[in-house]
Design goal:
It is a single chain. With 102 residues, this protein is α+β, with helices and mostly antiparallel strands. It has one domain: Alpha-Beta Plaits (2-Layer Sandwich). The protein contains four helices and five strands; from the N terminus they run E-H-H-E-E-H-H-E-E. Strand 2 and strand 3 form a beta hairpin. It comes from Paenibacillus foliorum.
Amino acid sequence: MPRRAFCLTIRSGMEKEYDRRHREVWPELLELLKDCGIRNYSIFRQGRSLFGYMESVNNIDEALIRLDAHPIQRKWYEYMSAVLIRDGDKGMTLLDEVFHLD
């Protein structure tokens, strides 16, 4: 199953707010993720550093393009911009896979 990992950084002092917002992820965003083929999606936090991992039932890059083009996802990016340090349009740094064990 295609997979992707990414890193993000929380703005200083916004850690609790980040956690709160992710306890209340919008149902329509969760449905959109599923509709785009995203599965097994997790975000881990250590201090202000975030590590995300997701899998896709199809081509992961196509799934992310479809996701990023949707107004709900764009609205979520805007909502989260107050708590995240942005890196480019998506606000995240995509990571290259260098090892995998099934």
